[in-house]
Design brief:
single chain, 243 residues, mainly beta, Thrombin, subunit H, 2 domains, Peptidase S1 domain-containing protein, hydrolase, protease
Length: 243
């Protein structure tokens, strides 16, 4: 998945963005830094590739330009990855989520910072405007975007998602516009669907999972419902509270 219909994100706008990269293939998936040690991404990012060949880049903005803010780390997946991979290969991809532990903690600064996890009982109303971001395709189909893209998308009601997608109402949310035109696309998988709370802080509401094409009319993007996975995440990272 990659952003279609978005725009260049200002440098440092989303300091929790992670680019999962292959030494030969380059950017493959997105991810979200949720603490100095941990990244959340999509399990299906590992379907066709050995995780040991991937590395995580935080502080990234322009893939082709190293501006000195990037931090490159190796990762290790944890938390029933194989079980989630099996779920991700099913018809609904309901548990399309993976946790990666960084071999060395990220250095938190103005360009690298974690995104908050949501409360496990959070459910946003239909029409809530959230943001997707990533280095994925800007047109379907092409290669990844060099510059981090961002786009606003509204949350779609559960019943509507269930009509339009192969959808698991217990573990997924969907977002997008009926007319299409704005969406995540290939290369955005694993990246965040992030929303702003009333007090101004941002939190992770979804993990980019799948869609029917990119930005097509009547075809919203599907995301892992992070509130339903918050306790699973906290259990695996050994933390009693969200960041």
């Amino acid at each position: 998945h990659r952003i279609v219909g978005g725009e260049d994100a200002p440098p440092g706008a989303w300091p929790w963005m992670v680019s999962l990269q292959h030494p030969e293939l380059g950017h493959g998936c997105g991810g979200t830094l949720i603490s100095e040690d941990w990244v959340v991404t999509a399990a299906h990012c590992f379907n066709d590739i050995d995780w040991r060949t991937l590395y995580a880049v935080v502080g990234e903005h322009t893939l082709s330009d190293q501006d000195g803010n990037e931090q490159v780390g190796t990762t290790q997946p944890i938390g029933n990855l194989q079980e989630n991979l099996q779920a991700a290969s099913g018809s609904t991809w309901g548990k399309d989520i993976a946790l990666l532990r960084l071999a060395a903690p990220a250095t938190i600064n103005r360009r690298v910072a974690p995104l908050c996890l949501p409360d496990s009982d959070l459910s946003l109303p239909e029409g809530t405007i959230c943001v997707v971001a990533g280095w994925g395709n800007t047109v379907e189909p092409t290669g990844p975007s060099d510059v981090l893209q961002e786009a606003e998308v509204p949350i779609v009601g559960t019943a509507r998602c269930d009509e339009l997608l192969p959808f698991d109402i217990t573990t997924q949310v969907c977002a997008g516009r009926d007319e299409g035109g704005i969406d995540a696309c290939q290369g955005d998988s694993g990246g965040p669907l992030m929303c702003e709370a009333a007090d101004g802080h941002w939190f992770l509401y979804g993990v980019t999972s799948f869609g029917r094409g990119c930005a097509r009319p009547m075809s919203p993007g599907a995301y892992v419902n992070v509130p339903t996975m918050t306790q699973w995440i906290l259990q695996n990272i050994g933390d009693s509270s969200a960041t």
